[in-house]
Write a structure and sequence with these properties.
The chain is an alpha/beta fold and 301 residues long. It folds into two domains: 11-135, Rossmann fold, CATH 3.40.50.720; 157-300, Rossmann fold, CATH 3.40.50. 35% of the residues lie in helices and 23% in strands. It is built from nine helices and 14 strands. The chain has a seven-stranded mixed β-sheet. The chain is globular, with a radius of gyration of 19 Å.
Length: 301
């Protein structure tokens, strides 16, 4: 099985006619993703040939959904237009919005996150719409190997299998996928490292816990904030499957801003050592390097 995206997902690409959108649409198609169209305002009615497939272009997400039945979108839109693109997807009530764009202002991310929550609450239980799940921004996306790939994660570095992976870091997502490729993954999800993101470690942990074909969870965090500490508390109370972790930043120099925009360390809070301690207190085995983390995952299985 898989979480959030599978072979039944119908995917559109916002910004498909741009250079990045076109390039990664071709890669997603090659990975078997069921891409059914793209959205570029002002280019509705046109079509583009990508990966030997003729894809229709729509002016709006709502029109694309009505014509194709799309239930997921991948957003390759420049930062200054990203807020509007995500809000449009939320207003169209699409189920999943994967926001790849890097450099979105934090207040824009906070706005569309709050807009998604307000929309979900306003619809209440009287509707089949349970909300738009946002993944990202500033993330590599999500892949269920052999089923669907929404984003920029390389599809040829791993196989389908029994591990669920959730990570703040795109690069470390790829490394762990490759190191554990012989075991394989149910789903790997890169949630992004910005201060405000949609799907969190906890959201992914809960979904993997409920997935009967995910036997082990690998969680990758990094210095800054308290997301990993909150995830540790959730694991202690709610997760019965083995969890192996890695926290990037053990060797980061004190007092220096590093990596993602969310990697801000204040005093002892947000350090790799503090996160490791919290995770280990919750029963998570934490590696000091990605390779050691892969070794711990093998032992846990």
């Amino acid at each position: 099985m898989a979480i959030f995206i599978d072979e039944n997902s119908k995917v559109i690409v916002q910004g498909m006619t741009g250079a990045e959108g076109r390039k990664h649409t071709a890669r997603m198609l090659a990975a078997g993703t069921n891409i059914v169209g793209g959205v570029t305002p002002g280019k509705g009615g046109q079509s583009v040939e990508i990966g030997q497939k003729e894809l229709p272009v729509y002016d709006s997400v709502g029109k694309a959904m009505a014509d194709t039945g799309a239930n997921a979108t991948v957003i390759f839109v420049p930062p200054k237009f990203a807020k509007g693109a995500v809000v449009e997807a939320i207003d169209a009530e699409i189920g999943l919005a994967v926001v790849i764009t890097e450099g979105i202002p934090v207040h824009d991310s906070a706005y569309f996150w709050a807009h998604a929550e307000a929309k979900r609450v306003a619809k209440g239980t009287a509707s089949n719409f349970s909300g738009t799940r946002i993944i990202g921004p500033n993330c590599p996306g999500i892949i269920s190997p052999g089923k669907s790939n929404a984003g920029i994660i390389p599809a040829d570095i791993t196989t389908a299998g029994r591990i669920g992976l959730v990570s703040k870091s795109g690069t470390l997502t790829y490394q762990l996928m490759y190191e554990l490729r012989d075991i394989g993954f149910s789903t790997a999800i890169g949630i992004g490292g910005d201060p405000v993101i949609g799907t969190t470690h906890i959201d992914a942990l809960a979904a993997f816990q409920d997935d009967p074909e995910t036997d082990l969870i690998v969680m990758i965090g990094e210095i800054g904030g308290d997301a990993e500490e909150r995830a540790a508390a959730f694991i202690k109370e709610n997760v019965t499957k083995p969890v192996v972790g890695y926290v990037a930043g053990f060797t980061a120099p004190e007092g220096k801003t590093m990596g993602h925009a969310g990697a801000i360390v204040s005093g002892s809070a947000g350090t790799a050592a503090a996160k490791k301690e919290a995770l280990e207190a919750a029963g998570v085995r934490v590696g000091k390097t990605p390779s050691e983390t892969a070794k711990l995952a093998r032992e846990a299985l």
